[in-house]
Write a structure and sequence with these properties.
Blueprint: E1 13-17, H1 23-31, E2 36-41, H2 44-57, E3 62-66, H3 69-72, E4 82-88, H4 106-115, E5 116-126, H5 129-146, E6 154-156, H6 174-181, E7 187-193
Parallel strand pairs: 1-2, 1-4, 2-3, 4-5
Antiparallel strand pairs: 5-7, 6-7
Length: 195
């Protein structure tokens, strides 16, 4: 995905995977006009709607694209070109035959690490504890797999097997809004790459 010319080649790049209506991406783009924000989702019509809304608002630092994350993600960004990936409230897919649709799995984590700049981050949040714990197991396995090369390592910013408290970012998704409105907890993780 090409960077907007007005932001320059060294701007920060933040990507929301599975962005749906783009509420988080829009809030981030409005709050951080110097950052290029990208929202990706498999629902093509929704991405077209988000692009139209961005154009109506005159937001030149946000872009939305149609992507099947578990198939095409390795072709979306160049190696070392993204500063932060956000995976917010992915579908839980409780049924055993649909678990293969879960977003956090080894191939995707490896792909995201290749596309992150050194010091980049993967931010994950879910309102379903079991989904968050299974995602954490995948992240921690990736930490162990990458541990042989400290320069390329992945580490939990809150400590091994520990969830991050609170939302440190300039926006939140519609699902986070409804989760907090119900008085429920958000299970959040932040993993740093290559630092």
């Amino acid at each position: 995905m090409a960077l907007p010319a007005q932001l320059g080649p060294d701007c920060l790049v933040e990507v929301e995977l599975g962005c749906a209506d783009g509420q988080f991406a829009f809030q981030l783009a409005r709050a951080l006009p110097e950052v290029f924000v990208v929202g990706l989702d498999i629902r093509e019509k929704l991405m077209a709607s988000n692009r139209s809304l961005a154009a109506e608002e005159g937001l030149a630092n946000v872009e939305f694209g149609y992507v099947n994350l578990n198939v095409d993600m390795d072709q979306v960004f160049a190696p070392g070109s993204v500063d932060r990936f956000h995976v917010l409230f992915p579908d839980p897919w409780f049924n055993a035959k649909h678990r293969k649709r879960r977003v956090i799995e080894p191939w995707l984590l490896q792909t995201l690490c290749v596309q992150l700049r050194p010091g980049g981050e993967i931010h994950f949040a879910s309102d379903v504890f079991e989904v968050a714990l299974e995602a954490m197991a995948e992240f921690e396995a990736a930490v162990d797999a990458l541990a042989t090369d400290a320069a390329q390592g992945l580490r939990n910013m809150a400590g091994a097997w520990t969830f991050w408290r609170g939302n440190p970012f300039e926006g939140q998704s519609r699902r986070e809004d409804s989760t907090l409105d119900r008085g429920q907890r958000v299970w959040r993780m932040r993993y740093l790459y290559g630092a």
